[in-house]
């Protein structure tokens, strides 16, 4: 090429370059396997000009549309998605270079435009969508027309005022009023702290305690019985977290023992559910390489045989509690009807543990405290009419989730009375609900038979969705 430019300057290199490019006419675009000899030389220059012209026109139309889509998408990964990238990612040189390689005709918006223009627009769009959904369904958590459980976070803000019940009540009322949900709150779920439960009661809303939070409190009370070993393990974990040399030795020992993957120790955090179980489980899994790495370090606290046995027993016991915490914490499935069933399962499970670990007095005391906590906190749930009705109406459970049959009977009576109230109207509710049946020949015979049939029908699979039943 250099020789042609220097010695033969009259030769048009651009025309030669165009002739070497295979151009395909518009009617051949769907047939990429057309050989080169089928395109006549006489039509190449015309076809090349046509394709270039059409390409320019397409780019002129496509690039603004594509650029607009990219610009609208930018706030999503930056500020809204779970990745939570910082806003200054649009100013990062490598990120700018990547976008340029993907689309050289696109210019990233500045950080100021992103925060002051794009993000507010997206917020307003989502705000209107959520408001419309809530106005049509009147719930934070609700079931849509397709029987799918929906959840919205309506507000999240820093609150620096004293967290008294009255102050929290004022904020709850403010948020509810802002979204137009006055007199539409069916129930409110929170932890068991007195200030938030008091605030909910001041709002005159029905309060439902968080089952997972109560479960965690029961476990935390029982863990006090193994506090000495817990402190030992936390100290060992802290040593490997602080010392890079100790962490490197632990990794090396795992590699030498041919562990499938090298793992780090997990630290216990009081406010994080199941974290003690996860700490014990991980250190038990790393027992051999961790003991070897500890023996070569300057850390003078070690776990003896009895300690390892108690850690193993505790993990074995708490495995079910972690399973239940995960099960009940889902936002995509119905959970209130599981509370009574899981309470029954926990009480039965704790009863089976009493004679399972006879060789350890520490473990025996741990089981006793755990059992007392579980029974005192969860035995009452089936007597709560709201929970009882939820279990009976759930086609997965019906009457199978109750420890006491009397609790089932009371829940069934409540459902029948409410159904009759819907049928006859509120003015007849008192007389129908309280009047004892004097005859088997009644207008309610068909209705009572239908209710009994519902209970007697086979339950659906435990993993099935009751909303789609």
UniProtKB/TrEMBL annotation:
This is Zinc finger BED domain-containing protein 4-like. It comes from Aphis craccivora. Its main location: nucleus. Residues 40-50 have a biased composition (Polar residues). The keyword Transport does not apply. Keywords: Metal-binding, Nucleus, Zinc, Zinc-finger. It is found in: Nucleus. The keyword S-adenosyl-L-methionine does not apply. InterPro entries: RNaseH-like_sf, ZnF_BED_domain_contain. Residues 24-33 have a biased composition (Acidic residues). GO terms for molecular function: zinc ion binding. Residues 17-50 are annotated as: Disordered. GO terms for cellular component: nucleus.
């Amino acid at each position: 090429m250099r020789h042609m430019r220097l010695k033969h300057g009259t030769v048009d290199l651009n025309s030669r370059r165009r002739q070497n490019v295979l151009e395909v006419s518009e009617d051949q675009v769907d047939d990429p396997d057309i050989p080169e000899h089928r395109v006549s030389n006489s039509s190449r220059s015309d076809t090349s000009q046509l394709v270039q012209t059409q390409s320019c026109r397409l780019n002129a139309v496509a690039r603004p549309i594509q650029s607009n889509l990219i610009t609208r998408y930018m706030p999503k990964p930056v500020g809204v998605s779970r990745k939570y990238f910082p806003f200054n990612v649009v100013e990062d040189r490598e990120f700018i270079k990547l976008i340029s390689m993907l689309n050289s005709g696109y210019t990233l918006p500045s950080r100021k435009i992103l925060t002051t223009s794009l993000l507010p627009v997206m917020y307003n769009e989502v705000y209107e969508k959520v408001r419309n959904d809530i106005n049509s369904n009147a719930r934070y958590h609700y079931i849509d027309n397709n029987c799918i459980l929906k959840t919205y976070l309506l507000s999240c803000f820093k609150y620096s005022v004293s967290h008294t019940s009255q102050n929290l009540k004022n904020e709850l009322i403010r948020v509810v009023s802002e979204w137009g949900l006055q007199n539409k709150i069916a129930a409110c779920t929170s932890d068991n702290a007195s200030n938030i439960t008091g605030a909910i009661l001041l709002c005159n809303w029905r309060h439902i305690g968080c089952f997972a939070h109560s479960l965690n409190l029961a476990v935390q009370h029982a863990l006090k019985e193994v506090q000495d070993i817990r402190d030992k393990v936390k100290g060992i974990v802290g040593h490997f977290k602080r010392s890079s040399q100790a962490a490197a030795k632990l990794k090396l020992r795992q590699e030498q023992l041919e562990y499938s993957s090298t793992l780090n120790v997990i630290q216990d955090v009081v406010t994080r559910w199941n974290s003690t179980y996860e700490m014990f489980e991980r250190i038990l899994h790393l027992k051999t390489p961790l003991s070897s790495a500890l023996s070569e370090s300057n850390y003078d606290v070690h776990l003896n045989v009895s300690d390892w046995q108690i850690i193993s027993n505790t993990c074995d016991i708490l495995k079910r509690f972690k399973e239940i915490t995960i099960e009940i914490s889902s936002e995509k499935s119905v959970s209130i009807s599981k509370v009574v069933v899981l309470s029954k399962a926990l009480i039965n499970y704790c009863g089976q543990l009493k004679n399972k670990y006879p060789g350890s007095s520490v473990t025996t005391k741990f089981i006793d405290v755990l059992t007392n906590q579980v029974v005192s906190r969860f035995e009452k749930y089936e007597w709560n009419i709201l929970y009882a009705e939820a279990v009976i109406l759930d086609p997965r459970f019906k009457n199978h989730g109750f420890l006491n049959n009397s609790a089932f009977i009371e829940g069934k009576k409540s459902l029948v009375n409410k159904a009759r109230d819907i049928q006859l109207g509120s003015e007849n509710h008192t007389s129908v609900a309280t009047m004892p049946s004097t005859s088997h020949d009644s207008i309610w015979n068909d209705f009572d038979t239908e209710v009994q049939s519902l209970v007697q029908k086979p339950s659906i699979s435990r993993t099935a969705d009751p909303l789609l039943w």
